[in-house]
Design brief:
about 325 residues, alpha/beta, eight-stranded parallel β-sheet, 8 strands, about 40% helix, binds zinc ion
């Protein structure tokens, strides 16, 4: 029997954000879940509840000094964790730990064969580095998840695929010299958008040199341009033959996002999700986690993430 796609839902996830007027507000979780419910996927999905990561979980990716800094600043509840993008709001340590724990819960559910595919909105916090916050991201749930898959389950080759408008710098530099972290990222050219990294010639360092795929897109790139880039990602992942796929489905690459300049439609997200499910079936025993990532136009994020879940359901 086909098992439903797990979709995570709960106030703990909704609590990760920075309040009005920050683009990463606290309403993103609710907006998505309203749209998902309206899509009527009953039977195809099952809801699951958030879980909190332990400090030991966080230490799989982050440094102890950085975890201490977040804990301290979260208790004080003022200032910024970085240069001014990521406010140290009161309680952010717990909220960020809940995002990480929920992504790890989805890993456990998949590895226990409760499902083959899961989606975690609000997660996919790809700018957080091993020792710093950046770009609205406090703890890097997917970075922790990659290390967790290795430590707890003995998997080695983990694919990370990112179609958020911004380069996934926390993941790229966090695993820059690691050839077994299979990295493919399509993003707006860093000359025009934060964080400014992810040029095509950034292919990894040390023994990973030449193994990672960064595809910068010009401002205004549409679905047609996305498909050309995506064909390269698909080919790359197919050749890399990973054991698990982590998908960062940032919706800020859709036309009308207030802080980026790409012009895809949600069809890009739907097609990418379907293709990744085919690759997961071929190489990974079907195992894939989708995360929401960025997306600051509420209408766009609701539709794009819902299409990702629909594609997961259709592929099961
Ligand atoms: Zn983004």
């Amino acid at each position: 029997m086909v098992k439903p796609v797990l979709v995570y839902r709960g106030q703990e996830l909704a609590n990760y954000g920075f309040g009005d007027p920050h683009p990463f507000g606290l309403d993103r979780h609710g907006v998505f879940h309203d749209e998902l419910e309206a899509a009527g996927l009953d039977g195809g999905i099952e809801y699951a509840s958030p879980r909190r990561a332990s400090v030991d979980d966080l230490l799989l990716f982050h440094t102890a000094d950085y975890i201490d800094k977040v804990s301290r600043m979260s208790a004080e509840g003022r200032g910024f964790l970085d240069e001014g993008d990521t406010p140290a709001v009161a309680g952010i340590f717990d909220a960020a730990s809940d995002v990480v724990g929920t992504t790890l819960a989805s890993v456990d559910a998949i590895m226990a064969k409760e499902t083959r595919r899961a989606f975690v909105p609000i997660a996919g916090l790809h700018h957080a580095g091993r020792d710093h916050a950046a770009g609205f991201c406090v703890f890097n749930d997917l970075g922790v998840a990659a290390e967790y898959l290795r430590k707890k389950y003995g998997l080695q080759r983990i694919a990370y695929v990112d179609i958020d408008a911004h380069h996934g710098d926390g993941m790229f530099y966090g695993f820059e010299d690691d050839p077994d972290l299979v990295f493919a990222d399509i993003h707006e050219d860093g000359r025009y958008l934060y964080p400014g990294t992810g040029a095509a010639d950034e292919t990894g360092s040390g023994r990973a040199r030449g193994t990672k795929l960064n595809i910068p897109m010009p401002p205004g790139a549409d679905d047609e341009k996305f498909r050309l880039a995506w064909a390269r990602v698909e080919n790359y992942i197919d050749n890399a033959a990973p054991e698990f796929i982590l998908f960062q489905a940032g919706a800020d690459s859709l036309e009308g996002d207030p802080i980026t300049h790409l012009c895809y439609t949600e069809q890009a997200h739907a097609e990418a999700a379907s293709a990744l499910c085919r690759l997961a079936d071929k190489h990974c025993d079907g195992r894939i986690i989708g995360t929401g990532g960025g997306g600051y136009n509420r209408h766009n994020l609701a539709r794009a993430w819902t299409r990702v879940v629909q594609s997961f359901v259709a592929a099961v």
